[in-house]
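re: ur question from earlier - yeah i can do the single chain one, its not a big deal. heres the input i used so u can compare w yours
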Amino acid sequence: MASTSKVEPSGEDETQEEELERFDDFTLASSWERFISEIEAVCRQWLADGPNNLLEKGAVQLEFSQKLYRVKFELKYATKSYSMDYYFETKSGGKVADWDCTLHDLQLCFGVKEFLVIAPQSASGVVLDAPEASKLLSAVAIALTNCSSLWPAFVPVHDPSRKAYIGIQNMGTVFTRRFEADHISSQVPVKLMHLEGLYELFVSKFAYSTVDYAMRLFKVQFTMKSTYRTIPNDDDDDDSDLQRPAAEIEDYGITPSGDTDTSNRSQWDDDCPWSEWYSAENPVKGIELIATWSEKMVESSLEMAELENASPHDAEKWMILAILSPNLTSSGGNSTGFASQLRVLVDALNVSFDAHFMEDFVSAVENPSSDNLKSSMVVPPPTVIDRLLKDLFHEGAQLPDFAKGEHKNSRAIKGAPLGSLFAQFCLHSLWVGSCNIRAIAVLWIEFIREVRWCWEESQPLPKMHANGSIDLSTCLINQKLQMLAICIEKKCELNEEFQDCLEGNDHIKEDGLVGNKTTNMPMPREKFYGIRDSPLIPDGLHGSEPIKSESCRMHKDVSSTDEKSADRKRRGSAGAVGSMKLLKSYQSMHAPFTLDPPLMTEDMHEERLQAVEAFGDSFNFSAQLEREILSSDMAAFKAANPDAIFEDFIRWHSPGDWENDETERSGPSGNSMDGLKDDWPPRGRLSQRMSEHGNLWRKIWNDAPALPAYEQKPLLDPNREGEKILHYLETLRPHQLLEQMVCTAFRASADTLNQTNFGGLKQMTVKIEQLYLTMGSVLKHLQTNRISGNSETIEDLRRLCVVFEHVEKLLTLAASLHRKFIQAPRLSADIFTDYYNFYLPRMGTGSSDVDQKEFNKKQNVKMQERQIISEMFKPPTANQSWRKVLSMGNLLNGHEPIAREIIFSTRDSSNNHHYAAQTPKDLKQEIETYRMYICGTSNDLRVALSITSCD
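and the output i got, formated as tokens:
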């Protein structure tokens, strides 16, 4: 009988009571069962949610696939933590394609569509203990069976490098699939390197017989994919030396390590427009060809041996993948191009505000105490400067075609045109001394010395047109150099005329005709300084062109006798102006040859406009500024028309200031001479501004002598203007120089790249046009001369360099693809389009901010394109093939596959099975009983086997 006395509980009894209190559910008696229950709950939730809800709850899309997603859940069992991942597709129907490049590794190995992976959260991510792996897989299988799920489940085992898995799948009440995959990384048996041995390996899994497999027939489904890769041309090149600018290698005598003949080695871009300045890394390292043999029935080892000797041309499908350089998606780094040097030039602009003269940066070489001027800035040696000056001033002195390669939006950038002297100077500056401010200062000072030498020695300024007007759309330095070139030519012409005059005087003295006045009279010449001595053109008619075009066909010159008498006094005539007559003498009006107006650069125009604005009467003051030109034109007009009056000059020079009466406009008109005489003189008058008392134009007319253009003093004084230009160049502030250099360097670099032949790819054409528009928008701030160091404009320029770098990389890729696929332009365009869409998120941003993904988009090769692709696989040379081991068949021009993937499978009808009565109706069809995926190279072998059984 139990005692009813109250006994104090001991400590051990208290512990047992606490355990009993916590035991709530007798069906979960162990942590193992709780672990299974937790897996089951998670799977039930995923099944209930379905793909669409899982996407809304944060399922992650895999990088290599557009249709595969993953959800993750963390579990804990005992002291270990596990991660269970569910991989699914949004569309659950259909069969898994054998060679879909977007498949997950487990989908490819085992032919599954959606699956679970449970792995420990450890450094290796695999289960190293075999009993633990079996127990883990059993837990998942039980949980999936409890929730009636047919998902396959996998557990990674062994070493991570082996990519080994074990797995299981419940396929209903009858069938179960088991999975196993492993990998051999060394000492692969020779037999397993050939199709015959691999076939026998697969047969051994289901043919339980000791006889020779080669003598038996086993029907097996077979499909194969072989991957070939071209041998890179620069396989032995040192990329660091290929990246180095050609100019820098030559300047500093750098020789790539291990190669003493680098200068003679041809690069892939030798005929590209940028090759004059640098050698770019070939962005297309090669191509991969994937040849696929579709599924066929194989019955013997002998048949497999014949397939191994088959040519890849017999494959049903070809696909190619361009192997691109990883530097395409990296920002900055060791890549060399215009963008990298422009970035350094912008830094030099930022430093240029620290000094007043360029000589200050040169003196800092001997006194590198300034904080901003670092002593690490390299100053090019004199030999480099001499070579560059020789290239600028003495080599290739022929005038370039500035319009060649110029984009339609290029003129929106206020720089020097490509090929001009200043543009060449800016491009050379990018590559000298790493484009630091000191190197630029040294080169600029020597550049100005050469320009002054050309001026003092009256030598033509190279790479500059010495005729025509000043192009005000270019930068001011280019305008000054263009005007200096014209001044040099004018100065040479004056010197020639002076020498001709001296020689003429010497000849006269020898002939004893010194006293003859006619010999000293200046006579019209076919060509004289500053005179438009050419057939009458619209420029020579000023505003009277419409009068000529309307009336010269209607009326012929009358009063020929008067013309003949007037011709004895007329000088410097370029011909009659249509049917226009002089008001007083009724003689034909003649247009004179006139002197060219003085050339003016942009700053000279601005000075004149500022002077006009400073005075109230803009008309009189502008006339005062143009007094010399007006006086010259009036003198030439008087010489060509001795009987002319002021009104005649206005009718010819400024028709807008001559007002015709309405009666004259509406009066009768005829072709007879009588009709002309009846309407003479023309009923008209001067405009109000020309008829005012004290009009400046009339004063100039009254003072102007009758002097033809060839006897007048030139309006342009070349000596005075030339010295003014040199003074401007020698005293130019550093930041003003660098601002114009930046604009010119961007424009010249873009124009150089614009000459690239890339096959007219539409995306590239649009991108280049956008680049010009962006440059024009950013660089316009440099034209105001109001920026300062560390301003927002500097940051905008640095961002512009990033944009320029992206476009430059894309253009290099487009050029390389065009050259490689020149006979297959469709492939070139499709590959570039795919990469452009892949690269587009990186445009305008640093690549470090974007997830690094590998470009792996493949292109289908049409039958007519196969021969072109095959020719890219040139037979290996002796130097390339000595290290190649031909251990596999299916050679392509001597190239063995770098990887060969095979899928063997056998199928059986479920209706013929003794469990057929219990099989669901939807499974009463052919099922894949055995499947083996094999991936082999010349050094390793991976095998994944799945077996369907009736357990």
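The chain is about 40% helix and 15% strand. not sure if urs matches, ping me
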